[in-house]
Records
---
Amino acid sequence: MKCVTNKRCYDTRELAEEALIEHRTRHYHNDNSGPINVYECRDCGSYHFTSQGEVSDLIKQNKSKISANREANYWERKLR
Ligand SMILES: [Zn+2]
């Protein structure tokens, strides 16, 4: 399924949130930049990332986990 927004579609909120955490683990963003939340799209009914509005509680809750994983990824790449 493709959306007019050209954003990547996720079928459920859970999938989108999981991907959002994953994304923030892989790519470095400041606290208030990059995708910070997910939303249900009015056009396609799927979920997309958004960089607007409030930072998702999910990100706040997983903040330490995200930075720990990101650090691990960084060293993994560096030492390879
Ligand atoms: Zn959409």
---
Amino acid sequence: MLSRFSALDGLLRHTQPLWQVQPFHHLRLPWWQTHPALCEALAALALPDLQALEQDEAARAALLWPLVPEASELAALCHLPRLPSTLPPPAPAHVPGRKWSQIWAFAQQLGLAAGRGPGHLLEWCAGKGHLGRLLARQGHSVVSLEWDAELCLAARQLSTGLPQQAVQQDVMAAEATGWLAGARQAVALHACGDLHRHLIRQGAAQQVASLSLAPCCYHKHAHEHYQPLSQAAQASGLPLNRRLLQLPLQETVTAGARVRRLRWQELSWRLTFDALQRDLRGENSYLPLPSIAKGLLVGDLTAFIDWAAQTKGLILPAPLDLAPYQQQAQERLAQVLRMELVLGLFRRPVELWLVLDYALYLEEQGYVVSLGEFCERPLTPRNLLLQAHRRADSEAGGR
Ligand SMILES: C[S@@+](CC[C@H](N)C(=O)[O-])C[C@H]1O[C@@H](n2cnc3c(N)ncnc32)[C@H](O)[C@@H]1O
């Protein structure tokens, strides 16, 4: 773990200027000085080429690896074992198909023997408790913690007759520690950011025998500047802020054609507003907009521009001809996609850097840790599974 982390850390620190850029802030590619050949190759790509490349991993690698010398090594460092699992049976009622396949694959990795050992299994940030319910059906006594009252109620209704207790509980509150103290294993499928980091810290403090988690949304609830858990990551000093913690999530591997089209449209509308606002304010700098209600995206550009101007307190001229701004936006959309192509090389490495930070921390706390991919990425790109077993327990042959 440590040598993989050190290698990844060194490469990420060295390549920071390539992946810490914010595409919307740049009118031209920001790497002409340092990577002229890369910029030339990117500049030669037209919008349809760029859109096609988003879906073609092999073509992206063929184009970019020769131009970014660190890229192939980063990809090799990110290669983790794909953990074997069988195909899921048909999804039960009330569980969406994709979620069911994730749960099935995740549960197969837990190494649980039915009814074995004292204490309960603790499901952390359970939602409707679908994972816990599958484990309860396998004979385990499960406590599912979730703070949303409606989700808890649904979990209770769905688990009638099963050894699953759905508890309405804020996992960040002190009382959650009590549930951890009595657990023989804690499982967390897609608990966000600080929620999974809290599980790691508190689970280790409570000496929970096993922890199994598939992290997601690394940026959620985090401090503005990432606070590493492990000594190695603290010593690294790689500056990660909340924006950069989102990098692993900004990819489109699971997106269908419609979602991709809407994303390009949103980018193009935002860039239209950006061109307009630079003109209206007479200031050549980016003005960030908040995320927008999806409903606005199925409307028309004018409604979006009205909303954006109102949000930023700008008065729109009347009449307003958007055509020249749309033209600029099309050119900039290509430029943004060019930069995103390069950022794409670093999404998984940044994610793995974070997960290795968790793994190293748990090793420091006396756990034996393994990492792998519990399902294929199209099923969920958040497919990393960290499993940790307390050293004394694993040395005694138990889990
Ligand atoms: C991404 S969902 C994952 C749900 C479930 N594990 C799954 O995979 O379907 C994260 C869940 O965490 C819950 N949550 C968020 N903050 C929480 C907190 N402080 N305490 C307990 N649950 C929380 C949310 O309500 C949501 O159900």
